[in-house]
Amino acid sequence: MLVAYKIFIDGVYRGKMKRNEMREFEVEMGRHTIYAKMDWHKSNELSIDVNGAIVELEVGSTQEKLGVGTPENDLLRYIFSKHQYLWLREKEHVDAPPGDEIK
User: Fold this and answer.
1) Alpha-carbon span 58 to 90, nearest angstrom
2) Where are the domains of the chain?
3) pTM (2 d.p.)
4) pLDDT classification of 20: cutoffs 50, 70, 90
């Protein structure tokens, strides 16, 4: 199943993203609120301050995050967890240990 998440920035639909897809959305500098939707599910809202740097975010579902469960439990979670099925977060970056920099 190819899932497409609808991305909203400041309440305005800006486009779709598929699972593991990278997309770029240009915004003005300042504070913005972002969330994702899929069917009737909505992710948490994330407020970010854009100051000219690139901000990377990730979106996914609890089903992907947990990676466990039976098809029946996954279906029940999908149907009844309207505001808990999707998540949105700032992507974590792991810094290379000293001496391992790419040159």
Assistant:
1) 6
2) 4-90
3) 0.69
4) confident
